[in-house]
Design brief:
Protein name: Major facilitator superfamily domain containing 13A
Distance between the termini: 14 Å
Largest sheet: none
Membrane topology: Multi-pass membrane protein
Strand content: under 5%
Keywords: Membrane, Transmembrane, Transmembrane helix
Helix content: over 70%
Number of strands: 0
Order of helices and strands: HHHHHHHHHHHHHHHHHH
Radius of gyration: 24 Å
Main location: membrane
Number of helices: 18
InterPro entries: MFS_trans_sf, TMEM180
């Protein structure tokens, strides 16, 4: 109760609650990242005319860098937390939060600057593609890791973390509006207006990161000044206690990986999340293809664009409802429900068939909404894993950013598997190759001809897209339900872990900081 009173005092003195400021950081990421995801490939392919070899070389290097930079930056950020004896009695202290905020204030504007590098031709397309992707993803990783780590450092209780995540979803939904605005200025023939639009977005993002991080830093610097004398006295007492403890022994990366490999809940969660990342990116990659070949003859182009826009914003808005369910029933139960709903909807769509146009529209949109909604709840599960890792391994400090980075290392390959497996399945069953222009005519001929035995077992392109649309979520849901049934960090075990962490840091952690 005492920490609640302290939070209210801080909230009134500064005006804006910490949860709102924390959530607003998602706005400054999403306004840029949504535009990046939608236009960077088309810009380099259609505007800069990058050749196919350079494109795939860039994507391959990006895949390696994208997988390795999360644990790399996480280790650089949190390695001192694993081995520093001085940090032992100050678990999740305001100094840790200040370190995260300092990283955000430095790298947030640089992230915005790296976003601008895509939209001006300044080198050969192949070289620019490679450099821009690696720079952008590097700064995005640092920003995401520190922002997500703050979720575990600002609060321990499930209710307060859900509250923080609620504001992230709200501001992410606002950030998705940049996708709608971008349609009015996007023109491959005249890039000037789109460049000005991107500059405006980058300026808003950079100024937002600077202002919000400074405001949050000033808030926690007050807490540091109030507790500085007490902390110094505690450090002197701990130093004077004599022999070194186990916490003073440095933890190497090899030892940390061995500890993580024995963390059963982490392994089951990583397995489930790998499938989830695969499904999310599969939906992103093949959403336009499904619209074109399943619905283009039945709906107008404007309806298709509206469906696309809704699929970007609805997951954030729907997540607000999911988070209220999490507060009532728990994150584990809500995620399990979402897996069951995904399985039920996919089976129902399979039984209904590809000719039900309105059901197809609803299913394509809802499939993406529920899948993205699940992705946005998983950060709450990772923060629970941070708590369990802290308690089980008796960390002197909660290594939040490092654990988020290790999760990304295991699950990022799903981003690459999604287009590879999807295009391979489509090519095997329909003969349609997205990289060959004449494959469209070949697939159209296969569709017109009822006999396809002479070319092996192939199906019409529209039917192949439909099978891909329904069987991928069915397979993903079954695998995820299997892995999720083995995950035990919920119920009484989760309550016990949180009680141990809160008990360890009771005298030093401000549990809810101005939420």
């Amino acid at each position: 109760m005492g920490s609640r009173g302290c939070d209210c005092r801080l909230a009134v003195s500064t005006g804006v609650p910490t949860a709102v400021l924390y959530g607003s950081l998602s706005l400054f990421v999403s306004i840029l990242h949504n535009v990046f995801l939608l236009y960077y490939v088309e810009t380099f392919v259609s505007v800069y005319k990058i050749d196919k070899l350079s494109f795939w070389v860039g994507e391959t290097v990006f895949l390696i860098w994208n997988s390795l930079n999360d644990p790399l930056f996480g280790w650089l950020s949190d390695r001192s937390f694993l081995s520093s004896p001085q940090s032992g009695p100050q678990i999740s202290s305001p100094e840790v939060v200040l370190k995260r905020l300092a990283a955000l204030s430095r790298n947030g504007p640089l992230f915005a600057l790296s976003f601008l590098a895509f939209w001006v031709s300044w080198a050969r397309p192949g070289l620019q593609f490679l450099v821009c992707l690696c720079l952008y993803d590097g700064f995005l990783t640092v920003v995401d890791l520190n922002h997500h780590a703050l979720l575990a450092d600002l609060a321990v209780s499930a209710y307060d973390r859900t509250r923080l995540n609620f504001h992230c979803s709200l501001f992410s939904a606002l950030g998705s509006l940049s996708v709608f605005l971008s349609y009015s200025v996007w023109d491959k023939g005249d890039f000037y207006s789109f460049r000005l639009f991107c500059v405006a977005l980058a300026v808003v993002s950079a100024l937002g990161f600077t202002a919000v991080s400074r405001l949050l830093k000033s808030r926690f610097q007050k807490e540091v000044r109030l507790r500085r004398d007490e902390a110094l006295k505690l450090k002197e007492l701990s130093i004077g206690q004599g022999p070194l403890t186990q916490q003073e022994k440095p933890v190497t990366i090899g030892e940390y990986l061995r500890q993580l490999s024995k963390h059963r809940n982490f392994m089951w969660f990583a397995s489930m999340n790998l499938v989830q990342v695969f499904h999310c990116h599969f939906n992103n990659n093949f959403f336009p293809l499904f619209l074109e070949h399943l619905l283009s003859d039945s709906i107008s182009a404007s309806t298709g664009s509206i469906l696309l826009g809704i699929s970007y914003i609805a997951p954030h808005l729907n997540n607000l409802y999911f988070l209220t369910l999490c507060q009532r029933y728990g994150v584990y139960t809500v995620i399990r429900w979402l897996f069951l709903v995904k399985l039920a909807l996919s089976v129902a769509m399979l039984l209904a068939g590809a000719d039900q146009v309105y059901l197809l529209c609803i299913f394509i949109a809802s499939n993406r909404v529920f899948t993205e909604g699940t992705c946005k709840l998983l950060n709450l599960v990772i923060t629970d894993l941070v708590d369990e890792d802290f308690v089980v391994n008796q960390r002197p400090q909660a290594a939040s950013a490092l654990l988020f980075g290790m999760v990304a290392l295991v699950t990022k390959p799903g981003q690459t598997f999604a287009p590879l497996i999807g295009t391979w399945l489509l090519c095997v069953y329909t003969g349609y190759d997205i990289f060959e222009r004449n494959s469209i005519q070949d697939s159209a001929a296969a569709m017109a001809s009822p006999v396809s035995g002479q070319a092996g077992f192939t199906v019409p392109l529209r039917q192949g897209c439909f099978y891909l649309l329904v069987f991928v979520p069915i397979s993903c849901a079954l695998l995820q339900l299997l892995a999720w049934s083995r995950f035990t960090l919920h119920g009484r075990r989760l309550q016990g872990v949180k009680a141990q962490r809160q008990g360890t840091q009771h005298s030093h952690l401000m549990d809810v900081k101005a939420i």
